[in-house]
Specification:
By secondary structure, this protein is an alpha/beta fold. It has helices spanning 7-13, 15-20, 53-59, 83-91, 106-111, and strands at residues 23-25, 31-33, 39-47, 67-71, 79-81, 96-100, 102-103, 115-118, 120-121, 133-134, 138-140, 143-145, 150-154, 157-161.
Length: 166
């Protein structure tokens, strides 16, 4: 179960971390999908481009309350996560998905209990070749996310912290 938090309150309480760069705020370019409008957890990172086979492979694993952070290169040319993958994430215990790319199947996404942030929607599906890398530092909208960093997403924004916040 994800803790209750306010990204605004976290920023206010951790101004020192913001100044140091150990807490960062992602640019406000993400759209909110799924029933979990707020989610948090440690990051599992994935770097892919217009290919969601590795996204599926990651979401088939036990999420254990983590957040899958997908660096899709900011592509606006296809949907990388749709209703089937969101349902898989929900079933396997992922708290959320942060996607630097597009999603698809809005009605199905919004019926799922998992939270998803994406740049927008695109009806075209991605390739499924299995190309990409996992477990590396990724740049999400210009902000570095490392495996194990904490992601906090709510209606006001998305935060990336090097340590869990309270």
């Amino acid at each position: 179960m994800a803790m209750r938090f306010s990204s605004c309150d976290l920023c206010d309480a951790h101004e020192d971390m913001l100044a140091l760069g150990t807490l960062q705020v992602l640019p406000p370019v993400f759209q909110c999908y799924g029933q979990a409008t707020a989610f948090s957890g440690p990051a599992v990172t994935l770097k892919v481009f217009e290919d969601n086979a590795m996204v599926r492979s990651a979401l088939e694993q036990s999420g254990q309350g983590r957040v899958l952070v997908v660096d899709g290169g900011g592509s606006l040319r296809c949907g990388m996560v749709g209703g089937n993958l969101a349902k898989l994430a929900e079933t396997n215990g992922w708290n959320g998905i942060l996607l630097f790319g597009c999603a698809r199947d809005a009605d199905e996404l919004n019926a799922c209990g998992v939270g998803l942030r994406a740049l927008g929607l695109h009806p075209r599906r991605s390739a499924r070749k299995g190309l990409g890398e996992t477990g590396l530092n990724v740049a999400i909208a210009g902000v570095m996310v490392r495996p194990g960093d904490w992601i906090y997403a709510d209606a006001d924004g998305v935060l990336v912290s090097q340590v869990p916040l309270s």
